[in-house]
Amino acid sequence: MMKYNKGLAVLALVMPGMCFAQTGEKVLEDFKPSTMNQPGKEYPQVNSQGYARFRVEAPDAKAVNVSLGLGGKGGTDLTKGADGVWTGTTAGPMDEGFHYYHLKVDGGIFNDPGAQNYYGSIRWESGIEIPAHDQDFYAVKNVPHGLVHEVLFPSASTNSTKRAFVYTPPGYEKNDKKRYPVLYLQHGWGENEYAWMNQGHANLILDNLIAEGKTKPFIIVSTYGMTNEAKFGTIGSFDIKPFQTVLINELIPYVDSHFRTLSDRKNRAMAGLSMGGMETKTITMANLDKFAYIGLFSGGSFKMDDVNATPGFKEKVKLAFVSYGSREMMDERMRSFVGDPKANTEALKAAGINSVLYVSPDTAHEFLSWRRSLREFSPLLFKD
Amino acid sequence: MMKYNKGLAVLALVMPGMCFAQTGEKVLEDFKPSTMNQPGKEYPQVNSQGYARFRVEAPDAKAVNVSLGLGGKGGTDLTKGADGVWTGTTAGPMDEGFHYYHLKVDGGIFNDPGAQNYYGSIRWESGIEIPAHDQDFYAVKNVPHGLVHEVLFPSASTNSTKRAFVYTPPGYEKNDKKRYPVLYLQHGWGENEYAWMNQGHANLILDNLIAEGKTKPFIIVSTYGMTNEAKFGTIGSFDIKPFQTVLINELIPYVDSHFRTLSDRKNRAMAGLSMGGMETKTITMANLDKFAYIGLFSGGSFKMDDVNATPGFKEKVKLAFVSYGSREMMDERMRSFVGDPKANTEALKAAGINSVLYVSPDTAHEFLSWRRSLREFSPLLFKD
Fold first, then answer.
1. Cα separation of B314 and B295, whole Å?
2. Distance between CA B205 and CA A136 in Å, rounded?
3. Euclidean distance between CA atoms B220 and B168, whole angstroms
């Protein structure tokens, strides 16, 4: 059983944070289609200030609402025009980065027909992207691209065939001798194995870091963390064992036998976001013979109590990386759970452990925090 | 320019065919969630006769309709219960296999929140699967699985980065010497590069055929055929040249340099469904130095006029494969376009060409026809 029940429950309750400018700000009319729209779809749109505008055709509907725009306060109500089309703009600019959302049409929950779909909250949700000032690090550029492989691997413990996505760095397929280290990278609660490649752009982040010479080329593996087996509200009863068995006994041996990996502990890392960070902490600390680099993205931090309770931690852990979005650091509930990641990080450093804290500016418990976390984490990996 | 404008227009207008049993048939209450539902979603459901049942929450809506159920006749109207939930069952059993659909809620088009999404009709549509009596050939089985690779390749001619999905057969990644033939496999109008792997199950079909020893292991490449550049209704103005340039000058060299392919013409095939079949016919006949095996799935047939107008056809084409769903063979508009594929096939045979016609029983212009076409086509490939 995981030790972090209270924390998991808190994480699941933290809503994406939206920060609004003062009312009265002039809304600039430079709206453009979101980069996450379906091909050719004009709406939703985003302007240069971060306001989002929606347009939904439902001529006979009584009420149409967008879940985005006023986090926790009812979203954005759309207004019906004379043409029967519903439109509306958020009351203020939204945080940079990726946001999940959905529509409420006459009391029913539907996706926005203009947006592409991303798995979050245990359903395929609509997604919108507010262009970040630093979006270049996950842009599709004219650099050598790695490949993302969809893998179906046998899982005897669950009597099923499971899926993983495996990123191999540029050149992997051309050189038949070279072997690579591996990062196992987990999604959060309500998400699945698609998250890190689809909305996380993990493959593009690595392509770009490698092209700039900022990180050693490595393989990334993302599979389903079985995080949705626990129902919302009862997440405290989540049992790590079934997923740990799939990861340690089934997926890692599969990857090591099907890809050209370096399979010793010094060449294996694990990281995860939110509940995936909790999984990462529990699994790596119980398996330090298999992992040397650990990343918790918005998913707790390492305390000296953890270190002292885990034989070999000081000798074996080459990197204990912790990150947060700056907005969730300010959240009272989050603070009450994680304590002070900065103080924890300093305590580990003082004990001679390579401990790093990264705080993503002006982002909440959302994917831009985690894209940036991966960007910061990757160059620190596989140094020996 | 393509020569088949009239045919393309016809194909785009042929609606999926639904065949209903006589009214009065007793509907069996053995409904189960569709295999294409989102995880954990109970609806839509399908019973053993092929009836589909829908359930949509939209308590304040005035009208909810499902586009499936009475092809071309308005679909299935749902009825609101006392609990505010809309439910309804198709008026009869539907054809076996995969169907695209969507909801109409108070005049707006939305997807079914219970179903997964599949790109068709130039949008991500909902999908439902009516279990086919022969579904075993595309089932996920405990056999060695190949990998599906997402590839981003540079396209100078369109000044963009394009995506392709590449299937490599089981064992490809373990043996660093063996080289494989390649099938280029195209989707239809309104679809994209995801279609053949997502709703076509091309990877599973090949895994199973290879496990049974029925086909030589080969690589499959699916990219976007740029078929949606032409608007519905003006499909006759589709220009093949931009896509031909991407395929011949950019994608094929990329695949041959990044994967262990056999790159001579005897080891390269092309096939496509519907408008992708039209693309296949035009591109292969203009590039017989590059392709030896050709498959047109619900996308026209080869006439002796084609053969006579194409120098080298008889010597170079190792297989001219044509297929249809039996229901579209009965469609008057389709007949008027394709003439008589059986007579055409016989004429080619008489001229000494390896010409094969396959008709999928009891299916229309839909994916079960094309899954079966791939199953029939694959064992005939790469015989030299």
1. 16
2. 39
3. 7
Size of interface A-B (CB pairs under 8 A): 137
Joined together, the tokens standing for residue A247 give 């990861």
Q: For all residues of chain A together, what is the average pLDDT?
A: 90
**Mean pLDDT throughout B348-359?**
97
How many CB atoms are located within 10 Å of the residue B29 CB?
A: 8
Cβ pair B176:A176 closer than 8 A: yes
Tokens standing for residue A253: 């041996």
CA distance A81 to chain B (A): 14
Give residue A340's pLDDT: 84
Q: Which two tokens stand for residue A85?
A: 């089309």
User: Does the beta-carbon distance from B59 to A173 stay under 8 Å?
Assistant: no
Instruction: List domains and CATH numbers for chain B.
Output: 5-13+137-380 (3.40.50.1820), 32-94+97-130 (2.60.40.10)
Cα distance between residue B87 and residue B80, in whole Å = 7
Q: What is the pLDDT of residues B119-152, one digit of tens each?
A: 998 999 999 999 999 999 999 999 999 999 999 9
ipTM entry: 0.84
3-state secondary structure of B24: coil
Q: Mind listing the pLDDT tens digit for each residue in A318-339?
A: 999 999 999 887 667 666 666 7
Pick the residue from chain B with its C-alpha nearest to A162.
B140
Q: Which residues neighbour A66 within 8 Å (Cβ) at sequence distance 6 or greater?
A: A54, A75, A76, A78, A88, A101, A102, A103, A104, A112
User: Which chain B positions have a beta carbon within 8 Å of A173's beta carbon?
Assistant: 258-259
Q: How far is A142 from chain B (nearest CA, A)?
A: 7
Residues 113-172 (A) with a CB less than 8 A from some CB of B = 113, 116-117, 122-124, 140, 142, 145, 147-154, 161, 166
Q: What is the mean pLDDT of chain B?
A: 90
- For chain B positions 195-254, those within 8 Å of chain A (CB to CB) are 197, 203, 228
Separation CA B152–CA B76 (nearest Å): 41
Alpha-carbon torsion (B137, B143, B144, B150), positive or negative: positive
The CA distance from B359 to A60, in Å, is: 44
